[in-house]
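Exercise 7.
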Amino acid sequence: MSVETFVAAAETLFTLETMAWVVMGVLLGIVVGALPGLGPPLGMAIILPLTLPMEPTNAIILLIGVYSGSMYGGSIAAILINTPGVSSSAATMFDGYPMSKQGRAATALSISATASAIAGALTIVVLLLFSPFLVEVVLAVGTPERFLVAILGLAMITVVARGSIVKGLLAGVAGLLVTTVGSAPMSLDNRYTDSMLLYDGVSFVAVLIGLFAIAEMMKLAGQEGGIAEDGVRIGGGVSAGIVSTLKRPITVVKSGFLGMVIGSIPGAGATVSNFIAYSEAVRSSDDPDSFGDGNETGVVASEASNNGTVAGSLVPAISFGIPGSSSTAVLIGGLLMHDLRPGQSMFDPSGELALTYAMLLALLLGNLVILLVGLSLVTRLGILTKIDTNYIIPMVIVLSFLGTFALDTNPIDVLTIIVFGVLGFYMVRHNYSVIAFVLGVVLGDIAEQNLYRSLELSDGSYMIFVNPFEYGWLSPLLVLVICLILVGPFLQGRLERYRDG
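Solution. The predicted structure, written as tokens, is:
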């Protein structure tokens, strides 16, 4: 690391004007992230043309701030109204919303802010120190590895499915089937539809909003009062959330680095890392059955992972110009619009290395803003759980429809959220795993595309996934991890019976 360049980047960042853009970006991001159906790609895309008159460093820092802030902002809606403001906060709902219903909304929100800020700052520091090594790691991850990461996520269904494993697997398969609608990834033939409105498939955002927002509003329509049970007790508070997070340093670090590693894999993104980190927290817990009922570790894992992903997703974006997610695709567009070329020049001391360091330092500052703003608003946000459902339901439904339609302006998305809202309502009623279904929807398209590409590279040979001598060691290692996850529960059961016998 060039000390002179680092100092120059710090001097650039710590000016009143640039710091103001960081704060503004984070605040805008929190608002965008908290609105159901919106998210960092849309927020950044709206702001992108407005940055044209700005100085390049300030423009990119503003976009980075929106990206980071929206990752935290998504947890606000997830915790309070069981609606993911962004898809990367979906796993936060599983324990955050039950905490809200138990009168611990303030605790859940402060856990979210603390875990997000700590994991985000920690991963940025690591990226600053080890960026050359991380670039080599990204280079080692090819198409077969991306396919196996998706399969790893699908294997987690056996971990996260509550109750009947058969129902969990059926839900996961149903989610996979949803991703087969539309054009095939390689042949471009239409599947299961002749409508051009479904040419790009069923919108994942619309599915997610339907499964959680609309389904939850259908449930709330049958009860009186606010969203929290027993009249809401905003218990716990800010200090309880901070202490709870600090008591789980291993979960914070592990989830943050899972987010960072997975986020650095192009095409994986925060949604995948979010579910994998949550699933890992369930797997490693001494009380896995408590997850989904307000386990604070679930909120810590989920929120630490999605902000950790921000740091990881920057690696392929600024190193190779490869977007690790939709958000970094917009960021790359911002770099190009301001005549900045992703690649080696971003790490060249005589090139744009100072800007790269300024971006990373801006993320560090942004995480501090997230912590301060998040903790200061906790007690005010908690009051939302006391609002009568007669006011909440129409507001959430309107925001869900507007946000979903604004994303692609595709009328079929409106029908999609209705269909999956009804489906999600009855899945919960009949004890089918919504988590498993979402995993199938998230990972199906990623798995299919990378399977096709992998087989093309190997001329149809499946040895590309298991032959370390010809195709590298990473794929066989992922295969081994997948096998251990799949057979682990059965082996654990046999070992327990052996010990008892």
